[in-house]
Amino acid sequence: MNITGIVIGLASFIIIGLFHPIVIKAEYYIGKQVWPLFLIAGIIACVASLFVWNGILSPLLAVLGFTLFWSIKELFEQENRVKKGWFKANPKRSPKEL
Known about the structure:
By secondary structure, the chain is mainly alpha-helical. Helix content is 71%, strand content 0%. The chain has helices spanning 4-29, 35-51, 57-83. The mean pLDDT is 92.
């Protein structure tokens, strides 16, 4: 029995699920200007996936990389959700940063 697909699917589900609160916290504490870090980390993860020969780790690095890329979009959307009042704004950041 080959469980590789199930392992990759479950790990992908966990990676994607973890990035939902990461994006919310990153926008709350830092703001959308953190997006270049997500881009760099995504590029590193995707490039690493090309050089890893492990049949589980390589696809998971690619999933992580593309999840980081998607998180950039979500950072900007999270800022809009905060402006609409759907999420709490960080009172320690000035309104100009929002």
